[in-house]
Amino acid sequence: MDSDVQFMREALREAQAAKAAGEIPIGAVVVWKGRIIGRGHNQTERLHDTTAHAEMIAVTAATEAMGGKYLNDCTLYVTVEPCPMCAGALAWAQMGRIVYGAPDQRRGFSLFSPSLLHPRTEVTGGVLQEECAALMLEFFRSKR
Amino acid sequence: MDSDVQFMREALREAQAAKAAGEIPIGAVVVWKGRIIGRGHNQTERLHDTTAHAEMIAVTAATEAMGGKYLNDCTLYVTVEPCPMCAGALAWAQMGRIVYGAPDQRRGFSLFSPSLLHPRTEVTGGVLQEECAALMLEFFRSKR
Q1: With a threshold of 0.90, does the pTM exceed it?
Q2: A47, A51, A94, A117: best mutation site toward chain B, by most B Cβ within 10 Å?
Q3: What number is the ipTM of this complex?
């Protein structure tokens, strides 16, 4: 659990990088055997690409690092609950475990169907939830 | 409807390119005002990337071509029903219309939740269904 907090802090660092770039502040890291093998933050604005979510970028980087396709032995840490697109990507990658910070009440995958994930993927929510949610809240308030 | 068939033939051409490369034979094109602005075929093997689906590649190309993020005035033609990941991506892109060939009985988005798509996206299935399905069937038979 301590290492969950530690790696969520790394995901938060990515979220801060997104915030600094004027992007929706969501960050993610992929960890394998205690080591970060993929990082990403939301870049939909910069890349003009609605699919450039933190998770997609981190998973693609991790897959590259593993030299293979599946991430069964890896854990994804992400500051906000993945959307259905990212959940679908995590299913294809067979992600071993997903740890997220804040739930997403509008586009969180769990609102649609938990079976969007691979059946063997473990999920833990609520790690550093308040910090992760505060970043989002602050961002959307500043846009009003 | 004639143009649906015409553009599905272009998607089938992409699927053939996937087949020739030893990939799962799925192809897609994105059309805007009667013109193809994005093409893609499945490249999960070549790119070692489980997210490199035909639709993801075609949508990213189309978004780039449009110089913006949303594809409300576009139609995606894809030989097989999109999976939840691709449906989620099409939702973010606000794709105007989706035309697919063969249904996917295992990972088609409609098996999970139709609301994975943007609420204003129109969907037409079954265009050149037999040709699209035959390519898939032949591929999976050859793998046994």
Answers
A1: yes
A2: A51
A3: 0.90
